[in-house]
Amino acid sequence: MTRPAPDRPALTTPEQLQAPESVRARRLRTARQPGLGLRGLVLVVPIAVLIAIGAGGPERSLLVLGPLVTFALPAVVMIAFWWDDWPGTTARASWSGWLDTVLVAVFAVVLTIAGQAVVARVDLPVLFDAYPAARHLATFPALMPLAGAAFTVMLQYTLVTEGWPVRRLPAIPAGIVALILSWGVAAVLYLVLVDFRPPPATGLDARPGPVSGATFGAALTVIGVWQVWFYLAWRGWPVTRISDRAARLLAGNAIVIVGGLASYAILAATELRPATITAGAGALIAAGLTVAMLFEGAIAGRLASVAAIVAVAAVLYAAFWLIAQALTWTRAEPVEWVAHVALNAWSVSVILHVAIGRRWPFGEPG
Fold this sequence. Notes:
- By secondary structure, this protein is mainly α.
- It has one domain.
- The protein has helices at about 20-30, 35-55, 60-80, 95-120, 140, 145-160, 170-195, 215-235, 245-270, 275-295, 300-325, 335-355, and strands at about 195, 210.
- The protein has a two-stranded parallel ribbon.
- Helix 3 (about 60-80) packs parallel to helix 12 and helix 8 (about 215-235) crosses helix 9.
- The chain is globular.
- The protein starts with 19 loop residues before the first helix and ends in a 10-residue tail after the last helix.
- The mean pLDDT is about 90.
């Protein structure tokens, strides 16, 4: 893994610029759809259920796993899109995805601790405590805005900005540098913009900012919808056809960021709560990953893919919402669990299966 990373992410490189073997592999996957995606649900659904309820029930899973999984997402992007699934590629196929998943879990803990240091103070006992004592700052929801920012910036830098100019480095250090840069930008955005109001019993000082953490997180999630729409479902079309790099990167960032913020402003004007916007946008992201990654190539046409994403999002949101309404909640809200299931449980399961595990054991036939 000392070779430089590809000049562009493979996911958004126009087909005529890709290596012939990559084009053949993608066409083979398309030919095996929708069966390939349906078989993938055999692994995606159980992993999603584990993240959704596996830490002692739905509410405890939200409060404990929500921050941990969200902080792990930038590492997932690094392993999948920068390291090309290394170090899992050093193991046999049946162990590759599991090795990478263990590494993701390590990153989840390390980055959550780093998040504590940025937001307030390092407090290790709180990491796995759903209901900490009054003097401690619970990781949920306090750390979620920073975690979401780190993931959004990492994905923006990786896909939209194409990792330039860090991609000139060998793949492993390039991924680490991208992760550090994204984290730095996310921390600055968080510290400058978010109004931090900790409970008085924690003894922490307030840090004033122009927007609430919920608003900050909701706006980022809507930007995430545009990232998934343009750079996963549409593979960067039409921006990636621009040959001049500077113009291409400027156009891509403008479309995603301005489009996302404008969309959030429109939604906020309808007086929807930030938590509701986050949950709805999360369902769209989960649906986008399902259509664009799990069922890659099954739906022809850009407009058809958007229609499929909206339909799948409606089904996922309705299903998660009905389940949440049937449960008992003491500290969190049902809509927060819906967002957790969509963004963390379902979306991460799809990425782990397709981009990290390479669809094992349903990958390309030997």
